[in-house]
Design brief:
single chain; alpha/beta; Barwin-like endoglucanases; Pyrimidine Nucleoside Phosphorylase, Chain A, domain 2; 19 helices
């Protein structure tokens, strides 16, 4: 290792869960040490654990000087030194666990120890995003058998902290996704917590969807809670609706999600390990999994849903969870709003008993909440739905949600639907026989969701509704003209809706 030091400099670039370092091409160490762009370097300083970062080479002296080492915003924060502090750089060693990744690329089965090594190296930032992508693609393409999924789940669980609430019954739910607008968690949590059951709901932000639970809850309240704040909130209110990224629960999962998002990878084995490791880490003892099935959902066939349910049940049982899986209707979006602000509107309408509240969102939330309430040994099987409905209709769920919002910190910004909008209308009269989940989700993303909270799609017609020619099917909201332009272009060749007759509608349902 060279003894030459460089002055540390913060480079204000968000590299999204990847440590990136910057050296000037004329830096004396650049050629002397044989560094190349996109190689990994180790950054050493006195009394600090070395930081591993991917090297970018800079030709502009305004960005980085020849005697400086630049670090991206995340890397600078992790290193924890002041600007100008002396640091040394060297070639980083290749993670030993990459040998296991190459074996998985070749289609071989990995051992529990190999998964532990891979996840340890990922958590320690020894993997670049390219190396993580190689692992994810290999696992998706060559598959993981159920023992490998179990080993991966345990490795991801061991990568971070674990919460222990000291209570025999801690419940949670998770939907595997693929259906836009499915914001049932924001209704289930206050219903269940109002009953007195503990439900610490930590959620991810959107991966491949227009909004995650955390994105939508952020319209109403702060979701980035410290571990201490999260624990205090749950002990006081029996629940939370928070982003899980700050709690260091299975942190390797967050790093892998950062790679999955741009690649659009969502392999079943990785998904099961991701969900169950987070739930066990959050201290859950009882878990409800929702698997929506539909022609344009993530799971398109009932047989695939049944196989996925069996995998969840096997891994969950081995992890010590009491787990129940429900297979639900994923034939179209749930609720009317797609995108954070519009979804938050739907949730609050249901909680307030607004006559305009979407009935499908209300009904699905009651069904799921009822199943979770039946984990309570004091309730008999079949009583959960009625109890959930009473909690919702009495206003107790609304009161609990208002307390959660206040306790987490009410959002000071009053978000509203994007002011730029256009409507998509029916080209013919008839009955709506299909709404394409993927098309509508993509449309909301192109409009700017979830980054632009007010962007999204407001559905005016759902499957089974009659429409006249020229009648509005949905409206697209955008915050900026670019989002509106992207979304408009997406609808020029298709609407995402199919219009037909009642006979076509019945035929469609028969195939689900």
């Amino acid at each position: 290792m060279s003894t030459t030091t460089l002055a540390l400099r913060r480079v204000a670039i968000d590299t999204y869960h990847e440590n990136v370092a910057y050296l000037h091409r004329d830096c004396p160490l650049y050629r002397a040490e044989g560094f190349q762009a996109l190689t990994k370097i180790a950054i050493d300083s006195d009394h600090r654990t070395p930081l591993i970062a991917v090297l970018n080479v800079v030709d502009d002296g305004a960005i980085i000087g020849t005697e400086e080492l630049g670090l991206s915003a995340q890397a600078f924060a992790l290193l924890g030194l002041a600007e100008g502090a002396p640091v040394r750089v060297r070639q980083a060693e290749l993670p030993h666990s990459m040998a296991a990744v190459r074996r998985k690329i070749a289609g071989e089965r990995l051992s529990a120890e190999e998964f532990q090594a891979i996840i340890r190296d990922i958590t320690a930032a020894r993997y670049s995003k390219m190396e993580m992508a190689a692992f994810l693609v290999a696992a998706a393409q060559n598959g993981l058998d159920r023992e490998e999924v179990l080993d991966l789940t345990r490795a991801m669980l061991d990568s971070g902290e674990r919460l222990d609430w000291g209570r025999p019954l801690v419940v949670d739910k998770h939907c595997i996704g693929g259906v836009p607008g499915n914001r049932t968690s924001m209704l289930v949590v206050p219903i269940v917590a109002a009953h007195g059951m503990t439900m610490p709901k930590t959620s991810s932000r959107a991966i491949t969807s227009p909004a995650g639970t955390a994105d939508t809850m952020e319209v109403l309240a702060r979701v980035e809670l410290s571990p201490e704040e999260l624990v205090h909130l749950v002990r006081e209110e029996c629940a939370c609706l928070a982003w899980g990224g700050t709690a260091r629960l299975a942190p390797a999962d967050d790093l892998l999600i950062a790679v999955e998002r741009p690649l659009g990878i969502d392999s079943q084995g990785q998904m099961i390990a991701s969900i169950l490791s987070k739930k066990v880490a959050a201290g859950s003892t009882h878990l409800l999994i929702d698997i929506p099935v539909g022609p344009s959902a993530k799971v398109t066939r009932m047989g695939d849903a049944v196989r996925l349910r069996k995998q969840f049940e096997y891994i969950g049982g081995r992890m010590g969870l009491t787990l129940e899986v429900v297979i639900s209707d994923g034939s179209q979006p749930v609720g009317r709003g797609i995108g954070p602000v519009l979804e938050a509107r739907d949730v609050m309408q249901v909680l307030r008993g607004d006559p305009d509240a979407p009935l499908d969102l209300r009904e699905k939330s009651l069904q799921l909440a009822g199943r979770i309430l039946e984990f309570d040994p004091q309730l008999r099987g079949g009583e959960g739905y009625a109890v959930a409905r009473e909690i919702l209709d009495s206003g107790r769920a609304l009161a609990k949600m208002e307390r959660l919002i206040a306790a987490q910190g009410a959002q000071p910004t009053a978000f509203a639907p994007g002011p730029l909008l256009f409507s998509v209308c029916a080209e013919e009269a008839g009955v709506v026989i299909d709404v394409d989940n993927q098309f509508i989700a993509r449309l909301a993303q192109l409009a700017g969701a979830p980054m632009d909270k007010g962007a999204g799609v407001d559905l005016l017609k759902k499957v089974g509704d009659r429409v006249a020619q020229g009648e509005v099917l949905y409206r697209v909201h955008a915050q900026f003209q670019s989002g509106l332009d992207f979304a408009t272009a997406h609808t020029r060749t298709a609407s995402g809706y199919r219009i037909g007759s009642v006979a076509h509608l019945l035929q469609t349902f028969d195939t689900l």
